[in-house]
Amino acid sequence: MRAAVVGTGFIGLVHVEALRRLGIEVTGIVGSSPERAAAKAGAHNLPEPYESFEAMLGDERVDVVHLATPNHLHYDEVRATLAAGKHVVCEKPLAMTSAQTVELLALAEASGLIHAVNFNQRFYPQNLNTREVVGQGDLGDVRLITGGYMQDWLLYDTDWSWRLEREQGGDLRVVGDIGSHWLDLVSYMTGLRVDAVMADLTTFMPIRKQPVGHVETFATEGGGETRDRAIETEDAVGLLVRFEGGARGVVTLSQVSAGRKNHLHWEINGTRASAAWRAERPEELWIGHRERANEASLRDPGKLQPFAASHTTMPAGHSEGYGETFRELYRAVYSAVAAGEPPAEPDYPTFAAGHEQALIGDAIARSHAEGRWVAVQR
Ligand code: SOE
Protein backbone atom coordinates (compact mmCIF):
# COMPACT_ATOMS: atom_id res chain seq x y z
CA MET A 1 0.00 0.00 0.00
CA ARG A 2 1.24 3.43 -0.92
CA ALA A 3 0.21 6.89 0.16
CA ALA A 4 0.76 10.48 -0.91
CA VAL A 5 0.44 13.40 1.50
CA VAL A 6 -0.95 16.76 0.40
CA GLY A 7 0.16 19.62 2.65
CA THR A 8 3.67 20.07 4.00
CA GLY A 9 2.98 22.03 7.19
CA PHE A 10 3.43 20.73 10.74
CA ILE A 11 0.61 18.23 10.50
CA GLY A 12 1.34 16.94 6.97
CA LEU A 13 4.72 15.78 8.17
CA VAL A 14 3.18 14.09 11.20
CA HIS A 15 1.10 12.07 8.69
CA VAL A 16 4.26 11.18 6.75
CA GLU A 17 6.12 10.00 9.82
CA ALA A 18 3.22 7.87 11.07
CA LEU A 19 2.81 6.23 7.67
CA ARG A 20 6.48 5.38 7.47
CA ARG A 21 6.39 3.81 10.92
CA LEU A 22 3.66 1.47 9.64
CA GLY A 23 5.74 0.53 6.63
CA ILE A 24 3.45 2.39 4.22
CA GLU A 25 5.51 3.82 1.39
CA VAL A 26 5.04 7.57 0.90
CA THR A 27 5.39 8.13 -2.84
CA GLY A 28 5.63 11.88 -2.41
CA ILE A 29 4.18 15.06 -1.01
CA VAL A 30 2.38 18.01 -2.58
CA GLY A 31 3.05 21.50 -1.25
CA SER A 32 1.49 24.91 -1.76
CA SER A 33 4.73 26.03 -3.39
CA PRO A 34 7.26 23.83 -5.23
CA GLU A 35 10.16 25.37 -3.29
CA ARG A 36 8.64 24.67 0.12
CA ALA A 37 7.71 21.13 -0.91
CA ALA A 38 11.24 20.50 -2.22
CA ALA A 39 12.78 21.81 1.01
CA LYS A 40 10.52 19.59 3.14
CA ALA A 41 11.10 16.55 0.94
CA GLY A 42 14.86 17.09 1.22
CA ALA A 43 14.77 17.52 4.99
CA HIS A 44 12.72 14.34 5.45
CA ASN A 45 14.43 12.11 2.89
CA LEU A 46 11.29 11.90 0.79
CA PRO A 47 11.21 11.41 -2.99
CA GLU A 48 10.94 14.46 -5.26
CA PRO A 49 7.62 16.19 -4.50
CA TYR A 50 4.81 16.06 -7.04
CA GLU A 51 4.52 19.11 -9.27
CA SER A 52 0.83 19.44 -8.49
CA PHE A 53 -2.14 17.81 -6.79
CA GLU A 54 -3.33 16.66 -10.21
CA ALA A 55 0.03 15.05 -10.98
CA MET A 56 -0.20 13.14 -7.69
CA LEU A 57 -3.73 11.94 -8.51
CA GLY A 58 -2.43 10.71 -11.85
CA ASP A 59 0.18 8.50 -10.16
CA GLU A 60 -1.22 4.97 -10.32
CA ARG A 61 1.01 3.81 -7.49
CA VAL A 62 -0.92 5.94 -4.97
CA ASP A 63 -3.63 3.97 -3.12
CA VAL A 64 -4.45 6.46 -0.36
CA VAL A 65 -4.37 10.26 -0.37
CA HIS A 66 -3.86 12.15 2.90
CA LEU A 67 -5.20 15.71 2.85
CA ALA A 68 -3.44 17.99 5.34
CA THR A 69 -4.20 21.23 3.54
CA PRO A 70 -6.03 24.39 4.65
CA ASN A 71 -9.71 23.72 5.31
CA HIS A 72 -11.15 25.51 2.27
CA LEU A 73 -9.32 23.09 -0.05
CA HIS A 74 -10.70 19.88 1.46
CA TYR A 75 -14.03 19.84 -0.41
CA ASP A 76 -12.58 19.98 -3.94
CA GLU A 77 -9.62 17.77 -3.03
CA VAL A 78 -11.79 15.05 -1.51
CA ARG A 79 -14.09 15.05 -4.54
CA ALA A 80 -11.16 14.80 -6.94
CA THR A 81 -9.51 12.05 -4.87
CA LEU A 82 -12.66 9.92 -4.80
CA ALA A 83 -13.21 10.55 -8.52
CA ALA A 84 -9.68 9.25 -9.13
CA GLY A 85 -10.64 6.04 -7.28
CA LYS A 86 -8.29 6.60 -4.35
CA HIS A 87 -8.98 6.12 -0.65
CA VAL A 88 -8.84 9.30 1.41
CA VAL A 89 -7.80 10.42 4.87
CA CYS A 90 -8.82 14.06 5.39
CA GLU A 91 -7.80 16.43 8.17
CA LYS A 92 -10.55 18.04 10.21
CA PRO A 93 -12.75 19.91 9.60
CA LEU A 94 -13.85 17.73 6.69
CA ALA A 95 -15.13 20.78 4.76
CA MET A 96 -16.28 24.37 5.25
CA THR A 97 -20.04 23.76 5.64
CA SER A 98 -22.41 20.95 6.55
CA ALA A 99 -23.87 21.18 3.03
CA GLN A 100 -20.42 20.20 1.76
CA THR A 101 -19.79 17.51 4.37
CA VAL A 102 -23.12 15.76 3.71
CA GLU A 103 -22.28 15.69 0.01
CA LEU A 104 -18.79 14.32 0.66
CA LEU A 105 -20.19 11.65 2.97
CA ALA A 106 -22.68 10.53 0.31
CA LEU A 107 -20.01 10.50 -2.40
CA ALA A 108 -17.57 8.57 -0.21
CA GLU A 109 -20.17 5.99 0.80
CA ALA A 110 -21.26 5.48 -2.82
CA SER A 111 -17.64 5.09 -3.95
CA GLY A 112 -16.91 1.94 -1.97
CA LEU A 113 -13.58 3.53 -1.04
CA ILE A 114 -12.17 3.94 2.45
CA HIS A 115 -12.79 7.40 3.92
CA ALA A 116 -11.50 8.73 7.22
CA VAL A 117 -11.30 12.01 9.10
CA ASN A 118 -8.20 12.60 11.18
CA PHE A 119 -9.72 12.58 14.68
CA ASN A 120 -6.50 11.16 16.07
CA GLN A 121 -7.25 11.98 19.72
CA ARG A 122 -9.40 8.87 19.94
CA PHE A 123 -6.28 6.75 19.46
CA TYR A 124 -4.53 7.51 22.71
CA PRO A 125 -4.63 4.09 24.42
CA GLN A 126 -6.21 5.59 27.56
CA ASN A 127 -9.01 7.07 25.45
CA LEU A 128 -9.63 3.82 23.58
CA ASN A 129 -9.63 2.06 26.93
CA THR A 130 -12.10 4.53 28.41
CA ARG A 131 -14.55 3.79 25.60
CA GLU A 132 -14.36 0.12 26.48
CA VAL A 133 -14.74 0.58 30.25
CA VAL A 134 -17.62 3.06 29.85
CA GLY A 135 -19.26 0.60 27.43
CA GLN A 136 -19.10 -2.21 29.97
CA GLY A 137 -20.62 0.00 32.66
CA ASP A 138 -17.63 0.50 34.97
CA LEU A 139 -18.49 4.19 35.52
CA GLY A 140 -22.24 3.57 35.67
CA ASP A 141 -24.52 5.91 33.71
CA VAL A 142 -22.70 8.98 32.46
CA ARG A 143 -23.96 12.19 34.05
CA LEU A 144 -21.38 14.90 33.47
CA ILE A 145 -18.70 15.34 30.83
CA THR A 146 -16.51 18.37 31.46
CA GLY A 147 -13.19 19.72 30.28
CA GLY A 148 -11.91 21.54 27.25
CA TYR A 149 -9.13 22.11 24.79
CA MET A 150 -6.79 25.06 25.34
CA GLN A 151 -3.72 26.28 23.50
CA ASP A 152 -1.66 29.49 23.50
CA TRP A 153 -0.22 29.63 20.00
CA LEU A 154 -2.57 32.50 19.00
CA LEU A 155 -2.19 34.43 22.28
CA TYR A 156 -0.66 37.60 20.80
CA ASP A 157 -2.05 39.80 18.06
CA THR A 158 1.24 39.21 16.26
CA ASP A 159 0.59 35.43 16.07
CA TRP A 160 -0.60 34.43 12.64
CA SER A 161 -1.92 31.39 10.79
CA TRP A 162 -4.08 30.74 7.73
CA ARG A 163 -6.61 29.45 10.27
CA LEU A 164 -7.33 33.08 11.20
CA GLU A 165 -8.52 33.84 7.66
CA ARG A 166 -12.19 33.03 7.42
CA GLU A 167 -12.01 32.21 3.68
CA GLN A 168 -9.39 29.53 4.38
CA GLY A 169 -10.30 28.33 7.87
CA GLY A 170 -14.09 28.63 7.90
CA ASP A 171 -16.62 30.56 9.98
CA LEU A 172 -15.66 28.76 13.21
CA ARG A 173 -11.96 28.69 14.05
CA VAL A 174 -11.53 27.34 17.59
CA VAL A 175 -14.59 25.12 17.31
CA GLY A 176 -13.49 23.63 13.97
CA ASP A 177 -9.82 23.25 14.83
CA ILE A 178 -9.85 21.93 18.40
CA GLY A 179 -13.45 21.91 19.67
CA SER A 180 -14.28 19.27 17.06
CA HIS A 181 -11.55 17.02 18.52
CA TRP A 182 -12.99 17.32 22.04
CA LEU A 183 -16.59 16.77 21.00
CA ASP A 184 -15.71 13.86 18.73
CA LEU A 185 -13.61 12.27 21.45
CA VAL A 186 -16.15 12.44 24.27
CA SER A 187 -18.97 11.17 22.06
CA TYR A 188 -16.72 8.35 20.89
CA MET A 189 -15.79 7.37 24.45
CA THR A 190 -19.26 7.59 25.95
CA GLY A 191 -21.33 6.60 22.92
CA LEU A 192 -23.48 9.69 23.56
CA ARG A 193 -24.27 12.09 20.73
CA VAL A 194 -24.70 15.82 21.28
CA ASP A 195 -28.39 16.77 21.34
CA ALA A 196 -28.17 20.55 21.89
CA VAL A 197 -25.71 23.32 22.68
CA MET A 198 -25.59 26.75 24.27
CA ALA A 199 -22.50 28.59 23.04
CA ASP A 200 -20.67 31.83 23.77
CA LEU A 201 -17.94 32.73 21.27
CA THR A 202 -15.44 35.52 21.91
CA THR A 203 -12.95 37.30 19.69
CA PHE A 204 -10.55 39.07 22.03
CA MET A 205 -8.42 40.41 19.18
CA PRO A 206 -10.64 41.77 16.41
CA ILE A 207 -7.53 43.12 14.67
CA ARG A 208 -4.33 41.11 14.24
CA LYS A 209 -1.03 41.79 12.55
CA GLN A 210 -0.73 39.64 9.47
CA PRO A 211 2.84 38.97 8.34
CA VAL A 212 3.49 39.81 4.74
CA GLY A 213 5.28 36.42 4.22
CA HIS A 214 4.43 32.74 4.84
CA VAL A 215 3.94 31.44 8.43
CA GLU A 216 3.56 27.86 9.65
CA THR A 217 1.23 26.63 12.38
CA PHE A 218 2.87 26.92 15.83
CA ALA A 219 5.64 29.15 14.42
CA THR A 220 6.37 31.88 16.97
CA GLU A 221 9.36 33.71 15.56
CA GLY A 222 7.43 36.74 14.16
CA GLY A 223 9.25 40.02 13.79
CA GLY A 224 8.82 40.75 10.07
CA GLU A 225 6.71 43.25 8.18
CA THR A 226 2.95 43.07 8.98
CA ARG A 227 -0.36 44.64 8.02
CA ASP A 228 -3.49 45.00 10.20
CA ARG A 229 -6.21 42.53 9.40
CA ALA A 230 -9.75 42.26 10.80
CA ILE A 231 -10.47 38.91 12.48
CA GLU A 232 -14.00 37.50 12.26
CA THR A 233 -13.53 34.17 14.00
CA GLU A 234 -13.49 33.25 17.68
CA ASP A 235 -10.44 33.11 19.98
CA ALA A 236 -12.29 31.27 22.74
CA VAL A 237 -15.56 29.47 23.43
CA GLY A 238 -17.70 28.60 26.43
CA LEU A 239 -20.03 25.72 25.67
CA LEU A 240 -22.83 23.99 27.53
CA VAL A 241 -23.84 20.65 26.04
CA ARG A 242 -26.87 18.41 26.43
CA PHE A 243 -26.06 14.86 25.41
CA GLU A 244 -28.66 12.30 24.40
CA GLY A 245 -30.02 10.47 27.42
CA GLY A 246 -29.62 13.48 29.71
CA ALA A 247 -25.87 13.77 30.39
CA ARG A 248 -24.59 17.34 30.56
CA GLY A 249 -21.34 18.87 29.36
CA VAL A 250 -19.40 22.04 30.20
CA VAL A 251 -16.52 22.85 27.87
CA THR A 252 -13.89 25.60 27.51
CA LEU A 253 -12.05 26.02 24.22
CA SER A 254 -9.29 28.53 23.61
CA GLN A 255 -6.30 29.31 21.44
CA VAL A 256 -5.27 32.23 23.67
CA SER A 257 -4.53 30.63 27.08
CA ALA A 258 -0.92 31.39 28.06
CA GLY A 259 1.01 28.28 28.99
CA ARG A 260 -1.50 25.83 27.59
CA LYS A 261 0.15 24.20 24.58
CA ASN A 262 -2.13 21.35 23.66
CA HIS A 263 -4.30 21.01 26.74
CA LEU A 264 -7.12 18.71 25.71
CA HIS A 265 -8.65 17.39 28.92
CA TRP A 266 -11.83 15.62 29.94
CA GLU A 267 -13.56 14.28 33.03
CA ILE A 268 -16.49 11.90 32.99
CA ASN A 269 -18.64 11.55 36.11
CA GLY A 270 -20.88 8.50 36.12
CA THR A 271 -23.30 7.10 38.71
CA ARG A 272 -20.60 4.70 40.01
CA ALA A 273 -17.21 6.25 39.29
CA SER A 274 -15.38 9.02 37.46
CA ALA A 275 -12.49 9.11 35.01
CA ALA A 276 -10.24 11.96 33.91
CA TRP A 277 -7.40 12.40 31.41
CA ARG A 278 -5.32 15.12 29.78
CA ALA A 279 -3.45 15.01 26.50
CA GLU A 280 -0.24 16.55 27.83
CA ARG A 281 0.09 13.62 30.29
CA PRO A 282 -1.39 11.01 27.97
CA GLU A 283 -0.07 7.94 29.74
CA GLU A 284 -1.99 8.76 32.94
CA LEU A 285 -5.64 8.04 33.70
CA TRP A 286 -7.37 9.05 36.93
CA ILE A 287 -10.25 6.99 38.24
CA GLY A 288 -12.37 8.48 41.01
CA HIS A 289 -14.36 6.44 43.56
CA ARG A 290 -16.69 7.28 46.41
CA GLU A 291 -16.27 4.14 48.56
CA ARG A 292 -12.57 3.46 48.11
CA ALA A 293 -9.34 5.20 47.30
CA ASN A 294 -9.00 6.85 43.93
CA GLU A 295 -6.66 5.34 41.36
CA ALA A 296 -4.02 6.83 39.10
CA SER A 297 -2.95 4.37 36.46
CA LEU A 298 -0.23 4.46 33.82
CA ARG A 299 -0.75 2.99 30.36
CA ASP A 300 0.19 -0.67 30.50
CA PRO A 301 -0.54 -2.79 27.43
CA GLY A 302 -1.10 -5.90 29.55
CA LYS A 303 -3.77 -4.17 31.65
CA LEU A 304 -5.77 -2.43 28.90
CA GLN A 305 -9.04 -3.57 27.36
CA PRO A 306 -8.64 -5.58 24.12
CA PHE A 307 -9.10 -2.86 21.49
CA ALA A 308 -6.92 -0.37 23.37
CA ALA A 309 -4.27 -3.08 23.87
CA SER A 310 -4.25 -3.73 20.12
CA HIS A 311 -3.33 -0.08 19.51
CA THR A 312 -0.31 0.32 21.74
CA THR A 313 3.15 -1.11 21.23
CA MET A 314 5.57 0.18 23.85
CA PRO A 315 5.82 -1.69 27.17
CA ALA A 316 4.58 0.14 30.28
CA GLY A 317 6.85 2.96 31.38
CA HIS A 318 8.13 3.54 27.84
CA SER A 319 6.10 6.61 26.92
CA GLU A 320 3.86 6.87 23.91
CA GLY A 321 2.26 10.13 22.79
CA TYR A 322 0.85 12.33 20.07
CA GLY A 323 2.74 10.77 17.15
CA GLU A 324 1.51 7.29 18.03
CA THR A 325 -2.14 8.40 17.80
CA PHE A 326 -1.64 9.07 14.09
CA ARG A 327 0.13 5.77 13.57
CA GLU A 328 -2.63 3.84 15.33
CA LEU A 329 -5.42 5.67 13.52
CA TYR A 330 -3.74 4.77 10.22
CA ARG A 331 -3.21 1.19 11.38
CA ALA A 332 -7.00 0.92 11.62
CA VAL A 333 -7.59 2.74 8.32
CA TYR A 334 -5.02 0.72 6.38
CA SER A 335 -6.44 -2.56 7.70
CA ALA A 336 -9.65 -1.55 5.95
CA VAL A 337 -7.69 -0.58 2.82
CA ALA A 338 -5.98 -3.97 2.88
CA ALA A 339 -9.33 -5.71 3.28
CA GLY A 340 -10.44 -3.96 0.09
CA GLU A 341 -13.74 -2.52 1.29
CA PRO A 342 -15.10 -0.37 4.12
CA PRO A 343 -15.89 -2.42 7.22
CA ALA A 344 -19.54 -2.72 8.31
CA GLU A 345 -18.59 -1.04 11.59
CA PRO A 346 -15.44 1.04 11.06
CA ASP A 347 -13.15 1.21 14.10
CA TYR A 348 -11.80 4.57 12.92
CA PRO A 349 -13.54 7.95 12.36
CA THR A 350 -15.14 8.09 8.90
CA PHE A 351 -16.63 11.03 7.01
CA ALA A 352 -19.75 10.43 9.14
CA ALA A 353 -17.75 11.74 12.11
CA GLY A 354 -16.64 14.74 10.05
CA HIS A 355 -20.21 15.49 9.04
CA GLU A 356 -21.40 15.10 12.62
CA GLN A 357 -18.96 17.80 13.76
CA ALA A 358 -20.13 20.10 10.95
CA LEU A 359 -23.72 19.73 12.16
CA ILE A 360 -22.70 20.45 15.75
CA GLY A 361 -20.77 23.47 14.44
CA ASP A 362 -23.96 24.77 12.80
CA ALA A 363 -25.79 24.49 16.12
CA ILE A 364 -22.93 26.25 17.97
CA ALA A 365 -22.87 29.15 15.48
CA ARG A 366 -26.63 29.55 15.64
CA SER A 367 -26.72 29.32 19.42
CA HIS A 368 -24.14 32.07 19.71
CA ALA A 369 -25.87 34.28 17.13
CA GLU A 370 -29.31 33.89 18.71
CA GLY A 371 -28.25 33.66 22.36
CA ARG A 372 -30.19 30.46 23.07
CA TRP A 373 -30.05 26.67 23.20
CA VAL A 374 -30.02 25.12 19.73
CA ALA A 375 -30.67 21.45 18.90
CA VAL A 376 -28.31 19.69 16.48
CA GLN A 377 -30.29 19.15 13.26
CA ARG A 378 -29.61 15.70 11.79
C1 SOE B 1 -3.54 23.53 15.84
O1 SOE B 1 -4.53 24.05 16.68
C2 SOE B 1 -3.45 22.01 15.95
O2 SOE B 1 -2.39 21.62 15.14
C3 SOE B 1 -4.70 21.30 15.50
O3 SOE B 1 -5.02 21.64 14.17
C4 SOE B 1 -4.49 19.82 15.64
O4 SOE B 1 -5.65 19.13 15.24
C5 SOE B 1 -4.12 19.47 17.08
O5 SOE B 1 -3.80 18.13 17.13
C6 SOE B 1 -2.95 20.30 17.56
O6 SOE B 1 -3.18 21.66 17.30
Q: Could you say what the CATH architecture of the largest domain is?
A: 2-Layer Sandwich
Q: Report the principal-axis shape.
A: globular
Mean pLDDT: 97
**Helices and strands, in N-to-C order?**
EHEHHEHEHEHEHHEEEEEEEEEHHHE
Number of domains: 2
Estimated structural class = alpha/beta
Number of strands: 16
**So what's the CATH class of the largest domain?**
Alpha Beta
Rounded to an integer in angstroms, the radius of gyration calculated over CA atoms is 20 Å
Name the beta content range: 15-25%
Identify low-pLDDT runs.
Answer: none
The spatial strand order of the largest sheet comes to 15-14-13-12-6-11-10-7-16
Largest sheet, if any?
9 strands, mixed
Distance between the termini: 36 Å
Task: Report the helical percentage.
Answer: 25-40%
Number of helices: 11
CATH homologous superfamily assignment of the largest domain: Dihydrodipicolinate Reductase, domain 2
CATH topology of the largest domain: Dihydrodipicolinate Reductase, domain 2
Provide a compact summary of the structure:
The protein has eleven helices and 16 strands.
Describe the structure.
The protein has 378 residues and is an alpha/beta fold. 34% of the residues lie in helices and 24% in strands. The protein folds into 2 domains: 2-118, Rossmann fold; 121-347 and 355-370, Dihydrodipicolinate Reductase, domain 2 (2-Layer Sandwich). It is built from 11 helices and 16 strands. It has a 9-stranded mixed sheet with strand order 15-14-13-12-6-11-10-7-16. A 5-stranded parallel sheet has the order 2-1-3-4-5, sandwiched between helices. Strands 8-9 form a two-stranded antiparallel sheet. A hairpin with a 4-residue loop joins strand 10 (236-243) and strand 11. The mean pLDDT is 97. The site of alpha-L-sorbopyranose has 7 residues, from helix 8.
